Amino acid sequence: MKALSVKQPWAWAICNLPKEYQKDIENRTWKTTYHGDFLIHASKSFDKEGYERLVVYLKTLGYQGEIPKPHEFVKGAIIGISYLNRIANNNSVYFANTDSIWYEGEFGFMLEDSRALINPIPLKGKLNFFEVDNNLVRSELEKIVKKTPIDNYEFKIGDVVLARPDAFDVITKFTKQGRQGTTYFKTEHKIKDIEGDLCGFTSLGFVGWSWYHKDDLILKESYEQN
Question: Domains along the chain?
Fold first, then answer.
């Protein structure tokens, strides 16, 4: 699974703040073609100036919770997981725009569904996105996945679900070709057909039918397609 090293306190701001205050942009001077789930690795370095800016940002947002002291931040470890949806660059028509308070340019990695691990995993970081052995993080990621119990549950036509190809990968990713190349997006599905323990979907008309076993599905309360 891919990971990205982020200096503290910004890694904490991505993973540990309540959703309404979370840092939803990771600023970089470089762009990437990667979109999808990735691990947040807290590097060993600490952004002292950034810490002061973080305090100001959170005050602007109305946050009244506790902010760790500089020596209290976890460093040199995987501390969470996030989803990279789009890339922002307010100076270019080829990228998304954002009004996020966290955006400082040049390229803003637009993040969703960021969550903290219960137990950080010590690991040496690397530059850019880097690969982490799934077996190293699987057990910790399984602890923070919100699963819907499906024992004795009968899915119905029209139920909204997320397909779950791996125990910790709750987002199924599809690709479509656009003028600027391949774009990535996540989608929830509505069940269109059921055969025994298999549920069928036609969420992407040009793809045709896709089937998932009910054990690979997570029930949702709403339907949103990005």
Answer: 2-144 (2.30.130.30), 160-220 (no CATH)
